[in-house]
## 1
Amino acid sequence: MIELPEAVVIARQINETIYGKKIKKVVAAKSPHRFAWYYEDPNKYDDLLAGKKVGDSDCFGGWIEIKIENVCLSFCEGINLGFHKKNEERPQKHQLLMEFGDLTAVSATVQMYGGIYCYRQGQFDNEYYLKAKEKPSPLSVEFDWEYFIKILSSPDIKVLSAKAFLATNQRIPGLGNGVLQDILFNAKIHPKRKVSTFTGDESKNLFDSLKSTLEKMASRGGRETEKDFFGNLGGYKTKVGKNTAGTNCRKCGEVIKKETYMGGSIYYCTGCQKL
Ligand SMILES: [Zn+2]
C-alpha cells in the first residue's frame, strides 16, 4: 500500500527518471481487476496522454500525481509502479502501461485495490484526492504541534482509539494502517488506547514520533515491506509489523503481538505499549 513515505520516494524517483519523456502509447485496463479504479473511461487514457511530455511529479498524502501538459495522472492505495528500461520485459498483467518515445516504459499494477486516474487538470473531484491535497503534509513545517493539538482536541476524537485517530477519516492523509504501527510503538502507545486517556506527555510523544518516524521512513527509501519505482524494497526496517510479529522487542525483550482490530492487523509490543 502506498502511504506517505513511499509516495515521497516514488514521486522523487519518477521526477529523476521520466521527466521530459514523450509518451508514445498508453494501454489502460488491459487486465481486468475488480478493484482497479479509473477516472471515466480508461480506454480514453491513450487519447489524453499520447504525444505529450511528462512534467513534474508530486505527492500529497499517499497520492502520487504526474503532470503531463494539461493532463494529470494520479495513483493511490495499492498500486505497484514500475519503471522498465528499453528491451526490458514488461509485466504480463497490468492495469496501465505507458510507453515512451525512447522505448522505456512505466507500468502500474493493482494489488488488492487502488486507483489510476487520468484527467484534465482541475477536473478531478474525488473526495479523498481533494482532502489529501488541501491538508498539510506531516513532513511539512505547517504540520506543527499547534496543528496537531487542534486535530487531537476536536470533540469527536476523544472517544476514538489511537489507531482510529491516526488512520481513519483522512485526518492525516497518507498515514494508514502500515506506518501507524511504528509511530505508535515509538510513542509507546497501544493502538487501542483511547485518545481521551492520553497524558500531556503522551500526546507530545505521539506528535514527535509521528514526525520523526515518517521522516526516517521517507529518508530511508520507504518501508522494507514496500517496493519503490525500480522494484527495490525500502531501507526502513519496521520495528513492529509482519516481519517482527512473534519476535522479542529489541527495547524491552517482551513479545511483539499481532491482532486483528478495526478491519486490519495491529502490531504492538506487549511490554512497551501497555493498554
Ligand atoms: Zn518493548
## 2
Amino acid sequence: MSLLEIEGVSKSFGPVNVLHGVDLTVDRGEVVGLVGDNGAGKSTLMKLVTGMYTADAGAISLDGTPILGLPPGERRRMGIEMIYQDLALARQQDVAANIFLGREPTRSILGMRFVDRAAMKRDAQAMIDRLGARLPAINRPVGSFSGGQQQSVAIARALTFEPKIVIMDEPTAALAVREVQGVLDLIRQLKADGIGVILISHRLNDVLSVTDRIVVLNHGRAAANLTTTNTDMAEVVSAIVGGGDMAEAAAHEARG
Ligand SMILES: Nc1ncnc2c1ncn2[C@@H]1O[C@H](COP(=O)(O)OP(=O)(O)OP(=O)(O)O)[C@@H](O)[C@H]1O
Ligand SMILES: [Mg+2]
C-alpha cells in the first residue's frame, strides 16, 4: 500500500473535462515529479487531493484511508500539506501569523482561550532557522518580502504541522539560483525524513535532479510514468508535448 493512492480520478468544470481517469501513487520517502504543459491539469489534480476541489469520479486514499469524502481541514490533520502556486499568504501579516494562519496555538486563561502569540513567534522562528531561510525580519508583513523569502514562509507553514505528504506547486518558479538550490535541498531532506513529496514544476532540470519518478499529465491524462534514473529530458519533453513535432518540443524546452 502506497502512502498516497489516486485511482481513476476525473474532474470537469462545467462542460470542460479537465482530468480523465488519472492514476498516481506516492510512497513514503518518495519524490514524484508532476509535469505537463500549461493547463494539463496538474494543479487541479492536487486540489482534489487537498479537498479544495471535489472529484467527479475515482478514489484517493492516504495510508489506506479513503479521503474523498473528507473536508480539507480533516485531510490536513491527516498529514496532507500543499504549497499553492499562488502561495496564498496573508500579505499584511507577519511570518508567525502566516505560518499558523487558521491553526493558531491557544492557551487558556481563566477558562477562556487566547491565541498564544509568544508560542507562535517562538515556533515560527525555530522553523525558519531549521530551514536555513534568510528573512529580513520575522515581524514584518510578508508582502514586503522577495518571492524567494515568501516561498520560504510558505514552506515553513507546510512543515510546521509534520505532514506525511507535501505537495509543492511550482515552488521554484520565482526564485534565484541559490534559492532554487535551497528548495531542492529541502526536498531531499523531506525525502530522508520519510515524507512523500509531489513536485509540480516546468523546470525539468530541477525535476530530473530531485525526483525518484516523473508522472506526465497531457490534456488531463497520465501520459507517462517514468523512473527518473531511467529517463532523460528528451523522453520527458516528448511525453509532455505528446507526439508533437520537434519544433514544438524545442520551444517547450526553451520555455521550461
Ligand atoms: N476553478 C476552475 N474553473 C474552471 N476551469 C478551471 C478551474 N481551475 C482550472 N480550470 C481549468 O482546468 C484546466 C487545467 O488547469 P490547471 O490549473 O490544473 O492546469 P496546470 O496543469 O496546473 O497548468 P499550469 O502549468 O499553467 O499551472 C485549465 O484548462 C483551466 O482553465
Ligand atoms: Mg498549475
